Structure formats: structure tokens, C-alpha cells
What we know:
The chain contains two helices and seven strands. With 99 residues, the chain is α/β, with parallel strands linked by helices. The chain has one domain (3-95).
Amino acid sequence: MPKIFEYFGYLLYIYVDDHLPVHIHVRIQGREGKFILLYNNGLLTVVHEHIKNKARLTAAEITEMRKFVRKYAEKIKEQWEAIHYFKKRATCIKIKRKI
């Protein structure tokens, strides 16, 4: 499970043997969630899902991560493709500026 981003306590991962659609797993302080990138006619929608049997992200965390995923959607897609299609190792990017 490669970590691809660190952002003010949030750790964002992509599982190596995961499934489509493109999505990212987020952890912070023992809570977890999943954010799915859905495209329709070129427009991005970010969908949040809870992870079964895991502590849920707070509403503020979900809002922050939706903004983050929107801003870094292209980089997330690039990392997803590198990991799943080209079997490359992920690079963790540390984001030090608030969105």
C-alpha cells in the first residue's frame, strides 16, 4: 500500500492490487475514508465512502479531503496508472501548503 501524499497529518494511499474506479484511501488519527474520482463529460466529481469497520472521518476532514483530491486529481491519476498499469513504485509527495 504505497503512500503517495502526506498533508498536515493526512496520509493518502493507493493499494497495489486495488480495483477501478481510480480512488485514494485517506487516514488521519486512526480514522479512514476512501475518495473516488469520477469523470462525466470531463467534469470531476469526488465521492467519499466510509471504510467498513473503521473509524469514520469527520465532516471537516471529508470536506478538506474533497478539496485536496480535486486539486491533486491529475497527480492521483498519474500515480494510480504508474502503480497499476506500469508496476512502478509510488513516490510520496509532502504537501506543506494548505489548500
